[in-house]
Amino acid sequence: MTPLTLLCLPYSGASAMVYSRWRRKLPEWLRLQPVELPGRGARYGEPLHTDMRRLALQLAQEQKATLKAPYALFGHSMGALLACEMAHAFRSLGCPEPVALFASGTAAPTMRAEYDRGFAQPKSDAELIEQLRTLNGTSEEILANEELMSLTLPVLRADFLLCGRFEPVQRPLLKCPVHVLGGKTDRATAEQLIGWSQETRGSFSVDMLAGGHFFIHEQEAKVLRVIKDQLEVHHRRHGLKAVG
């Protein structure tokens, strides 16, 4: 039985470890592969990036050596943009497209002018901490920990620049299905989420889940169910018995 690889890209300020819990909760035919970004986790000593396409190409080149089709891409927030750019980067390297792209918790690439307003310039520590506070994903105890913040804020600053300096480009559309997940009380509007439909000639869907920006944690079981249900269609279509 050929497993389907799920490459997962983290959100701003996070490492690939945010997806480690998923490994125990996915079926056997779906192989989780969190993608670590330079400057965090096991790659802490590497320089941080502020150019989305350059980072996507580097990651695609790194993954190409061991990547076996079929595969899918999942990213939340910044990770969704990065996942989309990786799909294009894989194609430019002669790799097959993913069987699906999951874009979670952020505006579409062509609808980011308002969404990323103010992110193109470096933010102060105080501004970054306030941004974390408004996203309701970080406890006050952690925000007050100077040692922990000294490690986190440089990563977050670079990630905000990654998003703020991103600009859409004209290029051939993807052919794979694009599945969008959004939080009902997150700041990405319905229009900004539906805008992801402009990225593909394939099928498109949107699932709205309860919660704010970090609904992927609050509604983890439902997020995994959406991923599993969408990928199981591909799995069955190719004559592979789905287990789990």
What does this structure look like?
The chain has one domain: Rossmann fold. The chain has helices at 52-64, 78-92, 125-135, 140-143, 146-164, 190-194, 215-218, 220-237; strands at 4-9, 30-34, 71-76, 101-104, 178-183, 204-209. The protein has a six-stranded parallel sheet, with helices on both faces. Helix 2 links the parallel strand 3 and strand 4 (101-104). By secondary structure, the chain is of the alpha/beta class.
Give the SSE layout.
Layout: E1 4-9, E2 30-34, H1 52-64, E3 71-76, H2 78-92, E4 101-104, H3 125-135, H4 140-143, H5 146-164, E5 178-183, H6 190-194, E6 204-209, H7 215-218, H8 220-237
Parallel strand pairs: 1-2, 1-3, 3-4, 4-5, 5-6
Structure keywords:
single chain, 244 residues, alpha/beta, Rossmann fold, six-stranded parallel beta sheet, globular
Q: Might you state the CATH topology name? A: Rossmann fold
Biggest sheet, in brief? 6 strands, parallel
Ranges where pLDDT stays below 50 over 5 or more residues in a row are: none
Q: Determine the mean pLDDT.
A: 90
Q: Please, how many helices?
A: 8
CA distance, first residue to last residue: 13 Å
CATH-derived architecture? 3-Layer(aba) Sandwich
Domain count: the total is 1
Shape designation: globular
* Structural class determined from secondary elements: alpha/beta
The top level CATH class name: Alpha Beta
SSE pattern: EEHEHEHHHEHEHH
The total count of strands amounts to: 6
Superfamily (CATH H level) name: Alpha/Beta hydrolase fold, catalytic domain
**Overall radius of gyration:** 17 Å
Strand content: 5-15%
Strand order of the largest sheet: 2-1-3-4-5-6
